[in-house]
Specification:
- The protein has 9 helices and 15 strands.
- About 25% of the residues lie in helices and about 25% in strands.
- The protein has 2 domains: about 5-135, Rossmann fold (3-Layer(aba) Sandwich), CATH 3.40.50.2020; about 140-275, Rossmann fold (3-Layer(aba) Sandwich).
- Strands 11-10-9-12-13-14-15 form a 7-stranded mixed sheet. A 6-stranded mixed sheet has the order 2-1-5-6-7-8.
- The protein has about 280 residues and is of the alpha/beta class.
- It is globular, with a radius of gyration of 20 Å.
- The two termini are about 30 Å apart.
């Protein structure tokens, strides 16, 4: 089974295939690595596919050890899902952590030549991470053939204001309309009180909801509940965490598309494989 951390030697002339980097753990939990691919001592790319900051930290420890052994060798970090990306500000109350900046600092300390990320939650991340290159939601969808995506949907739906920019990029590329949905919040509590959406005309084609991430799926189920009967919905998210499973979502959405930014992709989702090809598909 493929693990969450993979490595490939980057020096020209070596075998540049991705292979799993096997981490073991001592009884008390400390990680260890005993084998690396031939040629990695000249430079390597590291692919980390996880939502677990602890797993990312183990990968960074490996980078430290390789640089201490072999000097300042060139290393690229391919981090399709950026753990903590949603915690992208200092809040006046509530959650005290600015996790996106903490993780960015951990990464910046290693001096990566390039850091590839897929469809980060907000543009804050691009300002926090050194040498970052962003693979957009559109890049991921375009990695499919035009025959697979052009003419497939009647329109694109942004589920809230934060998703509007990425959804607009997809709608513009496909030359189809963009529709805006929104969340209504209780001003006193800050909790979501309901959902709304522009009127969506009936069509014999589905509409594609586009967003960066699905955690529990509440936003998407709320949106599906306010769309008129007879409108078929598909869902695309760059990062399918699906922490409450995918079964309920699959009842509301005809097709659910996600990438392999996380190692485990549910069988009911259509997986767009991009993680091992970020350098090639980034436009």
């Amino acid at each position: 089974m493929t693990g969450p951390i993979e490595i490939r030697a980057s020096h020209p002339g070596w075998d540049n295939q991705w292979v799993t980097l096997d981490f073991g753990h001592y009884p008390a939990g400390e990680p260890y690595v005993k084998d690396v691919p031939y040629g990695a001592d000249r430079g390597f790319d590291l692919l980390v596919r996880t939502a677990d900051i602890g797993v990312l930290n183990e990968a960074l420890m490996f980078v430290d050890a390789m640089k201490w052994r072999h000097g300042d060798i060139p290393v690229e970090l391919h981090l399709p899902h950026f753990p903590g990306a949603r915690q992208d500000r200092l809040n006046a109350d509530g959650d005290l952590l600015f996790t996106a900046k903490s993780v960015a600092n951990m990464i910046n300390q290693r001096g990566f030549r390039v850091v590839y990320v897929v469809d980060p939650h907000s543009e804050v991340l691009t300002a926090l991470v050194d040498n970052v290159r962003v693979v957009t939601a559109l890049d991921c969808l375009v990695s499919c053939t035009d025959a697979q995506i052009k003419g497939r949907w009647a329109g694109i739906i942004a589920p809230d204001g934060g998703a509007e920019k990425r959804a607009l990029q997809v709608a513009t590329y496909l030359n189809i309309p963009l529709y805006q949905a929104w969340k209504n919040r209780d001003v006193a509590t800050g909790k979501i009180a309901g959902f709304g959406c522009q009127e969506i005309p009936p069509s014999d084609k589905p509409y594609l909801v586009v967003d960066d991430l699905c955690d529990g799926g509440g936003t998407f189920m709320g949106l599906a509940g306010v769309v008129a009967d007879g409108v078929t919905l598909d869902l695309y998210v760059s990062h399918g965490l699906f922490t409450k499973g995918i079964e309920t979502l699959a009842l509301a959405f005809s097709e659910i598309y996600t990438t392999d930014s996380i190692v485990l992709v549910p069988a009911d989702a259509v997986c767009i494989e991009v993680a091992r090809h970020l350098k090639e598909i980034q436009r």
